[in-house]
Specification:
The chain is mostly beta strands and about 290 residues long. The chain has one domain: Porin, CATH 2.40.160. It contains 2 helices and 21 strands. The protein has helices spanning about 1-15, 25-30; strands at about 35, 40, 55-70, 70-75, 80, 85-100, 105-120, 135-140, 145-160, 160-170, 175-180, 185-190, 195-205, 210, 210-230, 235, 240-245, 250, 255-265, 270-280, 280-290. A 10-stranded antiparallel beta barrel has the order 3-6-7-9-10-13-15-19-20-21. Strand 6 (about 85-100) and strand 7 form a beta hairpin. The longest helix has 12 residues, at about 1-15. The termini are far apart.
Amino acid sequence: MKKLITLAAIILNAAIAYSLPSGNPSGATLYQCGFLRGVCSSDEHTLSYNRCNFLDVGVGFYGNYVFDRNLNNYSDDFRTKSVLVTQLNTNAGVVILNICDRLELFSSLGASKLNLVFNSKLFTPLPTSGNGSGRKTLMDFSSSFSWSVGGRCTLWGCRGFMLGLEGEYFQTNPELNYIFNPINSNGYTTGTGDYHEWQVGLGLSYWAVVCNPMVTLAPYVTLTCSDARLSVSSFVRQEVPNVESTIPTLSSEDLWGYAIGATLMVNKMVGVTVEGRWASEKALYVSGELRF
């Protein structure tokens, strides 16, 4: 019982985690002012253009917290529900390049923390009966460097409504720290994971003034298509110390998902975005941006 409580505590402590955020699909058009270029006269209702908004840069914070990425094991076209929870917590800084208030390119650099909870039958070789067979197992990875690149483009705008397209690629290669189950609680080991993911999305947002003309709110909804893959190099388990063990490559259960969020801006140069994602994952995304 004590070991079961310990396992539950470890899982709860790791319960904030990662996948790819959509972000506001019209983000390239929302921030039309900057500390260096000043206030421009672009009109969000007509998507007009003037030369003062040809090029600008921005910086921000990128926090993506996925509670479950819904990865699973697919072997020989046979679907087996062996992975219970996939968590990845990423905090990063982001640099943004905006072109003509229509297209923005961005890159994030940060750190990610990955954890898996799965049935021990996923192991090769399989655990023997009475030695962890069929038990819930935690695979813990150390915090590791992660990066992503992506872009957003505003396709259409009319009367405050904007249609946008977004895409992003993310990768991290975390080091395996330890494997824990109620039978073998000290399974420290070594190995390397390879997690990568791509995503594209099409979304609609609406630009509205809140209270003061300097404060605007842009709620949005996005339909996303994404795919994530996780592979782990061979490692040694405590119950079979003289044999290298493996788990199969894990991939997304669902390609399609959706995101609902909102961006709150001040003077069109500083903003905060909050977003929730469901279907292909269960996640929360928080970001802040500052344009120059």
